[in-house]
Design goal:
two-stranded antiparallel ribbon, about 280 residues, Rossmann fold, globular, alpha/beta, about 20% strand, 9 strands
Length: about 280
């Protein structure tokens, strides 16, 4: 099959993970089923749907979000479904004062903050995403800018949120230093990202539809130690860490080629998002 990566390869990996978790959980009755399905997949790798390519075309962050902007807020995104209620609960705990939504995208968190009566500034590198945010929040202060060079003054904000964006950066230290710079002493930052397990081990990426086909935006798996080191260097103290896992229904809904049991056994409870609350000293 050359050097492609197919749906069959991916499902084999899921079956293998389900097999490992069956052993770790001493659910030995599941092992035989997993082995039988692995054997069946191997015999059928050249057949549809296992032969479909999974190595999707890759777009840079700017081009990718320009394409994705129109459909970004469509329902069905497991990452957002897990992340959003946790982030918003933490946003409710921010101290009084203005709030920055860094990498605000279409403005989903900025709109929540504005609806709660907070003064919000949004920054994003994508004009297309900002256009969607401006339609949602026509009175808001929304600016074009990069996470590594935020277009705001020092110690401006009592709170900040940066959601599902740092995984697009090869290094997170400079962006976290910038977020710390714009916080007032005692200010808090709520930061979410795809979990390094799903990015680094399962190979999950930001996937969007383009012209009836799927494409992806590259992401990086940043370890917990990278966050902690960056926080310490920027003078930020960790106050809370939350790692929500996929529900059984979400895991099964990701099934390919009818392998619902394997996907559920492999992915249910797997941490899909990482959410930090940190405070500037």
């Amino acid at each position: 099959m050359g050097e492609t990566f197919t749906e069959g390869h991916y499902v084999l990996g899921i079956e293998g993970l389900a097999l490992l978790r069956a052993g770790a959980g001493r659910r030995f009755d599941r092992a035989g089923q997993r082995v039988r399905e692995i054997e069946e997949i191997v015999r059928a790798l050249e057949e549809h749907p296992y032969s479909e390519r999974r190595d999707l075309p890759e777009y840079g962050v700017g081009a990718g979000y320009a394409e994705w902007a129109e459909s970004y807020d469509d329902p069905g995104n497991d990452t957002i479904a897990l992340e959003q209620p946790i982030v918003r609960a933490l946003l409710d705990e921010l101290p009084p004062g203005p709030v920055l939504d860094a990498a605000c995208g279409t403005g989903r968190h900025a709109a929540y903050l504005a609806g709660a009566g907070r003064e919000v500034t949004g920054v994003d590198a994508s004009e297309a995403m900002l256009d969607r945010a401006r339609a949602r929040l026509p009175e808001a202060d929304l600016r074009v800018g990069e996470l590594s060079t935020l277009p705001v003054a020092d110690e401006t904000f009592a709170g900040a949120v940066c959601a599902l964006a740092l995984s697009h950066l090869p290094e997170i230290g400079p962006a976290i230093a910038e977020l710390a710079r714009v916080l007032r002493p005692g200010g808090r930052l709520v930061l979410s990202n795809p979990h390094p397990f799903v990015t680094g081990v399962l190979g999950w990426r930001a996937v969007f539809a383009r012209g009836g086909e799927r494409a992806m935006i590259p992401e990086n798996a940043h370890r917990h130690s990278e966050y902690v080191t960056a926080f310490a260097s920027a003078g930020l103290r960790v106050r809370r860490l939350v790692e929500p896992g996929l529900t059984r229904a979400q895991a099964r809904a990701r099934a390919k080629a009818g392998h619902g049991d394997a996907f559920e056994d492999a992915l249910a409870g797997v941490p899909a998002v990482i959410v930090w609350k940190v405070e500037r000293g």
